[in-house]
Structure formats: structure tokens, C-alpha cells
Amino acid sequence: MGFLFPEEPGKPREITTEDGVRRREIGCGEGGFLGSPDGGKTSLEVAYLYKAMQQGLEICDQQEVLAIRKETKAGETRYCVNVENHHTGQFESHYAKHVIVAAGTVNTLHLLLHSRDGEKGLGGMPQLGKNFGSNGDYFAYWDWQDRFHDMSQSLPINGYVRLKGKANQPFIIEAPLPCPDKLRLPSWIAKKLRQGTFIAGMGKDAMDGTVSLKKGKLNVDYKPENSSIFDEIRGQMDHIAEKTGKGILSIKRPTTAHPLGGACIGRNTDEVVVDGKGEVFDHPGLYVADAAALPKPVEGPPSMTVAAWANHVGEQLIMKLGRENADSFGQPFLLQELSEKQLVERDERG
Ligand SMILES: Cc1cc2nc3c(=O)[nH]c(=O)nc-3n(C[C@H](O)[C@H](O)[C@H](O)COP(=O)(O)OP(=O)(O)OC[C@H]3O[C@@H](n4cnc5c(N)ncnc54)[C@H](O)[C@@H]3O)c2cc1C
To answer: What is the pTM of this model?
Structure first.
């Protein structure tokens, strides 16, 4: 997660980074797993957006994309992105030859399914919505019943939980629950948040779910019973509960914070949706740069993998534009300079 640890342990301060971003060093009970209002966690905004803004990225906040259409004029195809501007309440259209969709798996699938179907729809993408998975996520409450410590006063993640001497265990982590001081909660819930923690397993699910539109609404058909990982995680949690003498409570039906797939990477349009550069097979210039493209479960927290994929899609598009520019103007595009600079930055980041 890249926590910004306090220089002086236990005494978090507000700092301004070299890039000019104001952040507060992480303290116990702050920046829990539901967001990071003070910037103690290195969020993607901090890691990516600020630098990209310095290089010319313009962010249009509060603009909700409703549909993507395609139109051909004078032999040239371009996309029309229909947007509702929540600042003005107006509906707007933006036009581009290249459109990258990265609305988060479920929103991306919703947007693409909606944009594909119907009279003016994009069409194509026969495998859209197939091979949808949950990353094998399984969440539970670890009932420590600790009356002497406030378990919510901790870092956002406590770490891995493993039983000694057991090989090939599913990936299990423990985290504090959201700090009740920051939320208005009934006292019995606040007590439970303080006296216990959150425990989660992740792993290889069958990724055999299907996402579709039914009467305009998103419908997810996913059968956890097809994936043995849930029994493995539940079994592991039972062992942990037994060894610690502290109950682990969960609802039987798994919940996911890490939906993946549905617009997967692969070889052709009969099998998947996008190619190895993230470009939709039947719609050149349309890209999927988020976890909807991942064809296999990450089996752990996925945001670094999603960021790496998005980075790759971006680099491939820059290279393609560089080649096109070189072709039309007979001279190399800025690409080489940009790539070298990016490579140096990447090396420096390790
Ligand atoms: C509670 C929780 C805790 C998590 N903790 C971790 C963790 O500890 N480690 C980890 O690796 N991963 C974690 N994840 C998963 C991680 O957040 C995701 O994997 C990651 O954010 C996915 O990135 P993304 O760019 O695909 O989508 P998102 O981060 O969801 O970004 C999509 C963006 O698109 C916008 N958007 C959606 N629809 C539209 C639309 N129609 N028009 C315009 N904009 C739109 C959304 O507002 C959002 O800003 C967690 C997830 C949750 C829910």
C-alpha cells in the first residue's frame, strides 16, 4: 500500500511532498482500508495523477460517461463519448480517435455492455461479460472480544496470517475494522469494531461468472460453489479460529472487493475481448485498461497489477501514436525521449 510512515514514530505530521502534494503521515486508526482522506496511504491519485497532470493531463471530474458510440465521417472513424456533467447538469459529447475505458471492472462492463447493445450500439464483442471472477475474495469478522485494547487503532493492514508448518495455504490477511471515532455508529457496532478485526482470504477462483444486462440492469451470474478456493479459505479460517480460540464469523456467500475479468485479454474475438495491448478486437482505438481485462485471478490485493496493466496499455498506445506520427510527418515523434525519461523514472522507483 505504500504507507507514509511518520519520521518520528507515533507522531504523524502534515508534509508537502517534492511534487507539492500535501499529505499527512499515517497514524494508528487513520487511513483505514475504506479510503485514505489524509493521504497516509499512497493512493493512485498520489502515485500517478499528479505527475500526469504536470505532463498535461486534464481531469474532468464529475463527468459521468453514459455511453460510447462510433461514427464514421469522410472515411475516418472516431468515438463519441456521451457524458452527463454533474457540475452543470448538462449532457455533453466528446469526440476522440482513441478511448481508454478504466471505470473499474463492474462499471467498465456495464458501460461496454450498454454501449455495445441497441440500435446505435457499437456491436461486436461477443465474449463481453464472460469469464468474470471474484479473485476468490472471502471476508470475515475475527471476534477477538478484546476488552483491553482498541483493535481499530492500528495500521490499515496488520499483515498475513499463516499457520505454522502448513504448506500451500491460501492467502489470508488481517486488518483493523474502520475506526468508529470517524463514523456515527450505534454503540454495539462501535464496540464490535473495537473488539475485533477483519480477516480476508483471496485465491484462485474458477472465473466462470457471466455479467450481462437484463432490462437495462447489470446482472451478475456467479456460482461460488464452482470454485474450491472458498472451501479452502473457510477451512483455513476454521483452523485459525481453533488455534487462537477466537471465533471467525462470516456469511456463507462470499463478497468481493476485487471483481476481475469480463473483457479479457487473449487471442481473438471469438474467445475474448481485447488483445495484448488492451485494444478491443472489433473496435480499433477502443481500449480497456482496468481489471476487467485480467483473464486470471490475481490471488491477492490486485491494485498494483491493475496499475501495471494500465501502464502497459498507456505505453503501447504512446508507441502506436509515435509510429503513426513518424509516418505522417516523416520524422520520429517525441516518443523516444519520453520513453527514455519514463524508463529512468521507473529505474529510480526501483
Ligand atoms: C474497500 C476496498 C478496499 C481495497 N483495498 C485494497 C488493498 O488494500 N490493496 C489492493 O491492492 N487493492 C484494494 N482494493 C482494490 C482496488 O481498489 C482496485 O483493485 C483498484 O481500485 C481498481 O482500479 P481501477 O482503476 O480498475 O478502478 P477504480 O479505482 O474503481 O477507478 C475507476 C474510476 O472510474 C470512475 N467511474 C466509474 N464509472 C464511471 C463512469 N460511468 N463515468 C466516469 N467515471 C466513472 C470511478 O468513479 C473511479 O474513479 C480495495 C477495494 C475496495 C473496494
So the answer is: 0.89
